[in-house]
Amino acid sequence: MPMAYLGGKGTKYMPKNRTAPVNDYVESILNKIDDQRKREKYKQHLTGVSQFAAMLAQKRNLDAEISAVAGLLHDIYKYSTGIGKYHSHNSAEYVKPVLYKMNLFTEEEQLIILSAIFHHADKKHVHDAYDEVLKDADALHHHFHDDSFDCNEIKADRIKKAIAELEIEGEINIAESKDISWKKVKKKKDVCQKFAKTASRLASKPVVGSLEDKHFKQILKYWPEDPPGDSLNCFFNDWNAAFVYHCCIESGFNLPVRYPNVSYRFCCVKAWLEWAIRSEVNLFIPYGCDIVPMKGDILVYKNNAGSGANLVNNQSPERMGVVLNFNGEFFEIAEGNSNFKNISEVASIRNNENIIGFIRLNDEYTYMGWQFDYKTGKYRAEPYIVS
Ligand SMILES: [Fe+2]
Question: For the whole model, what pTM was predicted?
Fold first, then answer.
């Protein structure tokens, strides 16, 4: 196996200093994981993928250091939170402010790294050169070091080509599963019912906005930055959007922490509005139309609605909660940070023009973020082919 990435006299590639601080950062995140076995496994994977990525990049005349950095960071959200769903998209979102604050990489380099992380779980499709390096490196490391690796025809094809490219010798035995669907989509069922039930249960606990509260810690777990990033400032001012997000995930309606092209993360009410009105999402029902609100709808309303609410400092001008009941005059909603009392409750909201509208989840919703190209911001219309 070529050892160029490991450096040493006479090697073509010597890592520049920039991988060291990234590695330190990754270690600082992994060191927070109590389970030593997991910690070591994660570290081995990130380091291993980083090394394979650097070697492949060098073979393909790309910047090995940039690929190495993408490899080091590519699964960081999953390892930090334990949440695997949409982990490539969430890792890119997680890493974005980290790279920015590190101030080590140019804007273009940051974009290349983030794009590779964003697309790395999509082994079925072909993206740009750096994206492909990370996907191949990831598949390669899983092949050599992961007993539970579920290798399908597409991943096997990537592994075979990468092994040949790196001139790794020896017998290659790739166990292929017949299933080439890279992601099995579980059919959602009765999302609205489950969602309303979860929201009602949590609102009645109640959840207190304190790190001492185990339910609040569950709501926090999707947003693990330390120190909190900008969107978390939004979160701490007003956690009812994060409350709704948690209820969604708990009821099987999965979303990444931020939808591509939406300006905010789902811990902000604005993000929900921006997401729901997008044409490919189309889940927003404006106030005043003929559609009758129902249990499980997400009610979005202006902050001065209801009794006793004050718009203080940076608090969001919009609020949201989950509809549990509607009698024509009042909504009963399950709300996280209800009336900014830092406690969840079932609140009563008058039906008037302060209501902005509703977001109605449904069982048919499909996340379309996979077709989003990270660099251009556009949805890819062309068919995906892995050659
Ligand atoms: Fe990985």
Answer: 0.88
